[in-house]
Amino acid sequence: MAVKAQVLYSFTAEPGNNELSVQEGETLTLLNQSVGGGWIEAQNSRGQTGLVPEDYIQGVNGSDAWEAHSTENCDSTQQQALAYQGSIDDDEWDDESDDGKSTGGYTWSQSEEGGGTMQRGTGHHTMKISLNKVFSKTPNPEVFLLTKHMVKENDRLPIYMGEVGPVWLYPQTQLDCVVADPKKGTKMYGLKSYIEYQITPNSTNRPVNHRYKHFDWLYERLMEKFGCAFPIPCLPDKQVTGRFEDEFIKMRMERLQGWMSRLCRHPVVANSEVFQLFLTYTDEKDWKIGKRKAEKDETVGVMVFTTMDPEIRELDPTEVEQKCETFSRFTRSMDDRVKDLLSVGHLHWKRCTGPLQKEYQRIGKAFQNLSSVFNTSGYQGEATLTEALTATGKTYEEIAEICAGQPKKDLHFLMETNSEYKGLLGCFPDIIGVHKAAIEKVKEADRLVAMNKIGPQDKHTMAKNLSTMSYALQAEMNHFHSNRIYDYNRVMQLYLQEQVQFYETIVGKLKQALSQYTTF
Amino acid sequence: MAVKAQVLYSFTAEPGNNELSVQEGETLTLLNQSVGGGWIEAQNSRGQTGLVPEDYIQGVNGSDAWEAHSTENCDSTQQQALAYQGSIDDDEWDDESDDGKSTGGYTWSQSEEGGGTMQRGTGHHTMKISLNKVFSKTPNPEVFLLTKHMVKENDRLPIYMGEVGPVWLYPQTQLDCVVADPKKGTKMYGLKSYIEYQITPNSTNRPVNHRYKHFDWLYERLMEKFGCAFPIPCLPDKQVTGRFEDEFIKMRMERLQGWMSRLCRHPVVANSEVFQLFLTYTDEKDWKIGKRKAEKDETVGVMVFTTMDPEIRELDPTEVEQKCETFSRFTRSMDDRVKDLLSVGHLHWKRCTGPLQKEYQRIGKAFQNLSSVFNTSGYQGEATLTEALTATGKTYEEIAEICAGQPKKDLHFLMETNSEYKGLLGCFPDIIGVHKAAIEKVKEADRLVAMNKIGPQDKHTMAKNLSTMSYALQAEMNHFHSNRIYDYNRVMQLYLQEQVQFYETIVGKLKQALSQYTTF
Q: Which family would the database say this protein is a member of (chains A, B) (predicted)?
């Protein structure tokens, strides 16, 4: 089967170099991916063939970690088919078909819009299943709204009035954990292999081991239980980002760490039984019992609101609606801006590792070539200039490499953070959808009372429960804002610090080159 | 008539912005050049229309000074038609049709290869005329080779053995001059206007005035007199580089200054009667008499070698040939490398003022937009982050402008110097051609003696004269090398200094932005 790829960045062939000019967005057929030196032989739709830089093509070079990340999202309607096949992995749920044997190979395939060439192996789409289980489109909040709940003290999730408004109860010591030490394990007499990560929470300081499929299981449970109330961050994609196992494992671990840390920071999630089980189970038996219990948990979906207990005056539905509108507007706008930033960053990454690197290389080469000619003049007193010119040329070649390597040092983290937020923000339409459906139900209450479908007391219960939902949303938004400010403040500083260092490095190198010239 | 332009740099349209994707090298028809904001409305060969950044197109934006310069060369077969018409100028030789009236307008026209749309006004091509007058293809050195010359002491151009080999006699004080104070003059009761420059040599410290056509006249005389022996730098092109008069005049003055300074540095040219006349004529009458005398000078073309007097042992023809080969190889190689550097610089200039500027603007905008959304959160304690993010965004917008403005500060001078050298190197094929023709003649001498076409004494004279030519070429090459080392040393330092300052400015700005974030 012909391998297709899409052109990410327009490229103009240099005459006489067997290069192929391509336009952004064009689809190419890959003829030879093992040309080497960063080149791929490809054919365009007009039948012309030639070499194209592999960095300019999507579906070929997977070394840009954030790129695959940027195609990752929790939106099940948008499955991008960058499939990793036959690698060391354990995506399947069924224990019996658990682990694909490592072949070290990989396949990229680009699904055309509406096309049927999508390859996702046998892994199911977790999010889709969770949604199907819990919601039918927007989950119906009615069952919760009519509940006269008495919260069991153990399950109780208090909401307090803090300085910034309603807030969850935050623990004295914040939970965190370290994900480390990925180890290859085998089963079925070595026929199947998998990676096991070690997770050490700061609460017990005792490591537990988990495979990717356990993270996936946890994600599913959290979506089921809290998906109506909190944005549950997407699990790092199964889709691969690097062509080398080590790189892939490292990147997945980095992202699992980010995922776990974010969940640890959420006071409700962190304190939940299922999350605690994941972090602190003592042995295989403990784990299995805990798993079965969690899967039987009935306080899931909209019913999670029954455990929430705002110790604040009840809000009237108008206030609830106003708050909801504010959050809806904010999350939608932020989602747009985050996507903009990701797309700008994407382009910038491509520029740095593509045309800009090439250009500085050319500048460096041009200076060195001039120096070589000067060297042949036979004129005495030439040496200082030719040496300085050569050094300048080499400096620009170094700058080319620094440029190309820079995105991994700064843009990477900016992209990772924004990708995480894109994932979180993608959860809000559902959360706000449930909330709005509840508001509509409460608006209908008078009519329902008149029709004798509910009693007057039920109407009061509904309003009270809506108020609870609203406090939960407010507490969640305050949690989101506080984390957002922390995260962006941190990542922007990191970005700027690395940018400063980048330019300072260049300054240092240029000064060094400059010092080699004769001063008259 | 439809105005055509060529695409310098591939550009990918953003969807929904009425932009047009174009490929480097593509020819466009310009539909509307006054769209504003750096955009031009254009149509491609497939009939698609849309907006294209004007910086991406050649023949539209003339503000890149070096670009017109880079099309300038002394090769009359390569007349690039970027014609400036109807401006304040005085290109014509005939005094009666001297000055075009200023209209302030200009026309760019791009001549297709072999096409006939070239517009050069009524100005003739100086170089062509000079060559036709003096040479027929390669000037025949025979007339000089057979001359038993007795150098008149006044005209005598001694060649000494210096540390680096044969050298011209350099004066104690190097001549230099300042070209300044361009003034608009009028004639014919104000119907015609011209620009007069003031030239002040350091020898007399007394300013003289000259119009462009006088420089042109001087160039023609120098080509006639010295063109067989020295590379006479091209006169700054008549072709315009800026769309505004002031910019054009400033650029021309800068280049006339460079041209004069280079001639002043040449000991033979600087000391020549015609050059001295140009710099030190006392009044209109003096100028007119001097002009007439110079035009009647018969020691021109190959006969200039009759004035050269090497005070060194005679070289045998084999040595002459070896030297000539060395210089031929060097000048050809350097010509290639200089052209490479110009083309790399050209691309880099376009990158800085085009895609790179745009990209930093987008990055800046993305940060600012994110900040604007954050600002609407209603969450307290937001201000520090939003202010810092806005500042960061503005910083990247500033970096965009710094990037776009940088080539004028550093690349410009590198390009100007290389353009000058491209012009000089373009003269060597003719100089070396005359030299090689002389070598061939001397090789034939034995046969000519046998055929009784020349006497044995003539053969001796020819060998002696060839030796003189060789010393002249060697002295000239040594002059060239010494100037080259000086020029490149200077321009590279300037380039690197400005590059260092550029990156340091960015570091400063980024540090400033960084300092606005909260440190936890």
A: Belongs to the sorting nexin family.
